[in-house]
Specification:
The protein is α+β, with helices and mostly antiparallel strands. Helices cover 34% and strands 23% of the residues. The chain contains 5 helices and 9 strands. It has helices spanning 32-39, 42-57, 63-93, 150-153, 175-189; strands at 24-28, 96-100, 103-108, 114-119, 123-130, 136-142, 168-172, 200-203, 216-219. The strands form 2 sheets. The chain has a 5-stranded mixed sheet. A 4-stranded antiparallel sheet has the order 1-2-3-4. Helix 1 (32-39) packs across helix 3 (63-93) and helix 2 runs antiparallel to helix 3. The longest helix is centred in the middle third of the chain and has 31 residues, at 63-93. It is elongated.
Length: 220
């Protein structure tokens, strides 16, 4: 009979055991399709190669000539699609998002994994952009003084916000449920004087984010 050990287990996706009083509320990964389509822009890759093949085929005198002219482009198209799909799968496979009752933890990186800790005290507000398949992106705007390099975040960063990077839980399954859970966690961690402010609010996509204490805005 082996002697009992005092080894403390580290939850998956976290760099170390949680401190006393902190608990995991939710863990998940982005979908590979969401990463490939919306972060790596698979549709644009397909459109580019299709347009290039069409441009090469137009001057051809016959179908055989058109096939000969476009064969290298179509081969490159196939390689590009496979590469983007594999990168999307690897990115999703090596990513773990964790929401605790005190923070958001993002374990990201294919070759060099990095763990990003976002305490709720550093979160100005968050948002939800939901998609038709039930997935969604949850960008997190940080308070002034808290900054993470955009390249350290990508592809887990809100697009076009390079000057003020915003971490983003990308292509999260059952996004609305996760958004509600995050809203409840932020609300529970608020100071008492902030507890009456709304945490979950609907707003149109692209609307400016109001400057107020932590809240969660939903972009449809």
């Amino acid at each position: 009979m082996s002697a009992p050990t005092n080894e403390i287990l580290v939850p998956e996706g976290l760099p170390e055991p949680l401190p006393p009083g902190e608990r995991v509320l939710w863990q998940g990964r982005p979908t590979a399709a969401g990463i490939a389509l919306r972060a790596l822009h698979l549709r644009l890759v397909a459109l580019w190669f299709s347009a290039l093949a069409l441009w090469q085929a137009l001057p051809a005198a016959s179908l055989a000539d058109a096939v000969a002219e476009t064969a290298p482009t179509l081969a490159a198209f196939g390689v590009a699609v496979i590469l983007v799909a594999v990168l999307g799968w690897l990115s999703a496979r090596t990513t773990t998002y964790t929401i605790t009752n005190r923070r958001i933890v993002m374990r990201v990186g294919i070759a060099l994994p990095v763990t990003l800790n976002l305490p709720f005290a550093a979160v100005a507000d968050a948002g939800l952009h939901a998609f038709g398949d039930g997935t969604g992106d949850l960008p997190v705007r940080l308070k002034p003084g808290t900054r993470i390099a955009y390249l350290h975040l990508w592809p887990h960063a809100r697009p076009w916000h390079v000057a003020e990077p915003q971490p983003m839980l990308r292509s999260v399954p059952e996004a609305r449920s996760v958004a509600r859970l995050l809203a409840q966690a932020i609300e529970a961690a608020r100071a008492p004087e902030e507890s009456a402010l709304p945490v979950l609010a609907e707003r149109p996509q692209g609307a400016p984010t109001p400057a107020r204490p932590p809240r969660l805005a939903v972009a449809g």
